[in-house]
Structure formats: structure tokens, C-alpha cells
Specification:
The protein has 11 helices and 12 strands. By secondary structure, the protein is an alpha/beta fold. The strands form 2 sheets. An 8-stranded parallel beta barrel has the order 1-4-5-8-9-10-11-12, surrounded by 7 helices. The protein has a two-stranded antiparallel ribbon with strand order 6-7. It has a domain of 226 residues: Aldolase class I (TIM Barrel), CATH 3.20.20.70. Bound molecules: ligand PBG.
Length: 328
């Protein structure tokens, strides 16, 4: 594919001036490519810093108006909600996930009432914010049960849809849950509620700060390797995606982000479906601390986000979304 040679061909020619670099730029980033995660906490009038994630806070419901207005002003199309459940509301079964007055349900109702459809709401479907053992499903002999867990996830999804959630995002990695959730939503006339499946979620070491943020870090027993994917695998990701598309997923998540750009590219090449990348908490904190310690410049944030676009991602869940959309 090389169409000439040095010295008549000089690739630096197009890099000489800013206008020229802009002209030949192959990918760019806009705030409509971003999804902003928001952590929730019980109580009133609180914006609580999260130690492991500098610059990120947990918000009480009454504080959501301010932050969501900002997100809308910055033209970010969707937020993802994550709750910090108080310990006394956690149990072995994650029952609090089915309480219509839990933090996530209250937040959905509040946001939809105040902002109508000016912003999309995405909610995780998984039990880890609600279980005492910190796993995404029901635990028996240190193994997460699949089918029994799916039954609860179905109810959790329906409840979120009833509250007004726009995009149901199962992040649990149980087999078969997308199809079952789709069926139950349709049966209850929620045909238009979308499913964003975390089809490709790796058992990653980059989730540390998030588990701290939702309070599952200390409680988590063992690891999540018997349901989340082995980070050595690539072909398996295509099998996961193929299954979830057949079961009715509208969009596919690949998670984590930067260490998995090869997977994003592979999925995008093989399936013509929106692929969302999740730049997870560990990635965020590493970059943020690098900037804080003046090891890297702030422009590393845009570089990291554009890399997802280059790989083929349609949108990116990122804790940088709000900060960075100012500069786009
Ligand atoms: C849990 C869930 C996790 C994240 C999103 N949903 C953590 C996990 O699987 O342990 C991680 C997000 C992040 O690290 O930013 N179902």
C-alpha cells in the first residue's frame, strides 16, 4: 500500500502545521462519545470525596441535580449510576438490589422527574454492591451460582426499568442472562429499554478503586475468576459477544479499557454493533496520580480516550468525562 518513496514522499509534510495535522486527523473525540459514572451515597447534602479516586465523589440524591445539570451542559449523553450500600443493608443474597427504595431506584426516579429524557440513565445489573461477600451473584461453596443468580438479576432489571432506567447494563457475567432479561422486559412492555451487555468483562486487577468506592473491597472474598474472563484470552471474547447479540443485546461493553484495545478492535471488526469501552477506576487513578505528581501532562487524558476511538469504540465510560468535555 506504500504509494511512493523518499525523497519524493515525505510523510512529515502533512505534520508541519497545525491546520494540516487537523485536516488529516483520522479520529477525534467529542463529549457525545462519553458516559459519566456517578457514585451514590445515603444521607443528605453530602458530596463525599473517594480517597482511591482523586477528584471523584459520592453524591447524596439531593445533590444529584447539580452534577447532572453539569453533565447535560457538557453535552454528555448518559450517566451510569453506582451505589455505596450501607453495610447494614447488605446480606448474603443481595436482597437490597430488589428494594424499590434503594439508592439506585431513588436516584433514577429523581433524575427522570427533574430532567425527563434530557439525559440517558444506565444502571449496572449485578449483586456486588448489595452482598456481604462482595460477589456479583449468589455464593455456594465459594462458587457463584449461575441460574439462581440470573433469576434475581431479571427482577433487578425489571425493577430498574420500572423506575425509568433507559439502559440496563448486566455487569455480572452470568451465562444466559441477557436473553432472560430481554424476555422479561418485553413481557412487561419495556420493549424500548435497551440492554448494554458487559459481554466481555475480564477478571481484572484494575477494578481496585471502584470496589473501594462502592464498599465491596474489604468484604470481597477471593476473586471473580469463576465468572469474569481470563485476561489471557481473546477468542473467548468473540464467543461471549456472539451469544449476547443472539440473546438481544443492543450494545456491547468491553472492560477494562486500555489494556484491552486489541479486544475492542477485534469485537468491532467481527460484529457491527456499538462497542462501548470502560476506562475503569484503576486506569483513572493511575493517570490521575501521574498528572498530580507531574509525571505526565494532562493531555494524556485525551490521548487515552482517543485510543479507544482509534481501536473502534463507539463510546467510552470514563471518570474523566466531565473534566475533559470542557476542553473538547
Ligand atoms: C461490578 C462492577 C465492577 C465495575 C463495574 N461494575 C467491579 C467488579 O466487577 O468487581 C468496575 C468499574 C471500575 O473499576 O471502574 N459488577
Amino acid at each position: 500500500m506504500i504509494t511512493g518513496k523518499y525523497p519524493s514522499l515525505r510523510l512529515r509534510r502533512s505534520r508541519k502545521y497545525d491546520w494540516s495535522r487537523k485536516l488529516v486527523q483520522e479520529n477525534n473525540l467529542s463529549s457525545s462519545d462519553l458516559i459519566y459514572p456517578i457514585f451514590l451515597i445515603e444521607g443528605k447534602n453530602k458530596r463525599q470525596p473517594i480517597k482511591s479516586m482523586p477528584g471523584i465523589y459520592r453524591y447524596t440524591i439531593d445533590k444529584l441535580g447539580v452534577i447532572i445539570s453539569k453533565v447535560i451542559r457538557h453535552r454528555i449523553p448518559m450517566v451510569a449510576l453506582f451505589p455505596l450500600t450501607p453495610n447494614n443493608k447488605k446480606d448474603k443474597y443481595g436482597n437490597e438490589s430488589l428494594n424499590e427504595n434503594n439508592l439506585v431506584c431513588k436516584a433514577i426516579r429523581y433524575i427522570k422527574k427533574k430532567f425527563k429524557n434530557k439525559i440517558g440513565i444506565m444502571c449496572d445489573v449485578a449483586l456486588d454492591p448489595y452482598t456481604t461477600h462482595g460477589h456479583d451473584g449468589l455464593l455456594k461453596n465459594n462458587y457463584v451460582l449461575n441460574d439462581k443468580t440470573v433469576e434475581i438479576l431479571m427482577k433487578q432489571s425489571l425493577l430498574q426499568a420500572q423506575m425509568g432506567c433507559d439502559v440496563i447494563a448486566p455487569s455480572d457475567m452470568m451465562d444466559g442472562r441477557v436473553g432472560k432479561i430481554r424476555k422479561l422486559l418485553d413481557k412487561n412492555y419495556y420493549h424500548d429499554v435497551q440492554i448494554l451487555s458487559y459481554a466481555v468483562k475480564y477478571a481484572s486487577h484494575f477494578y481496585g478503586p471502584f470496589r473501594d468506592a462502592v464498599g465491596s473491597k474489604k468484604s470481597l472474598k477471593g476473586d471473580k475468576k469463576n465468572y469474569q474472563m481470563d485476561f489471557s484470552n481473546k477468542d473467548e471474547s468473540l464467543r461471549e459477544v456472539a451469544l449476547d447479540i443472539k440473546e438481544g443485546a443492543d450494545m456491547i461493553m468491553v472492560k477494562p479499557g486500555m489494556p484491552y484495545l486489541d479486544i475492542i478492535q477485534k469485537v468491532k471488526e467481527n460484529f457491527k454493533i456499538p462497542v462501548i469501552a470502560y476506562q475503569v477506576s484503576g486506569e483513572y487513578s493511575l493517570i490521575k496520580n501521574g498528572i498530580k505528581n507531574k509525571l505526565i501532562s494532562e493531555d494524556a487524558i485525551i490521548e487515552s480516550l482517543i485510543s479507544f476511538k482509534r481501536a473502534g469504540a463507539t463510546a467510552i465510560v470514563s471518570y474523566f468525562a466531565l473534566d475533559i468535555s470542557n476542553k473538547l
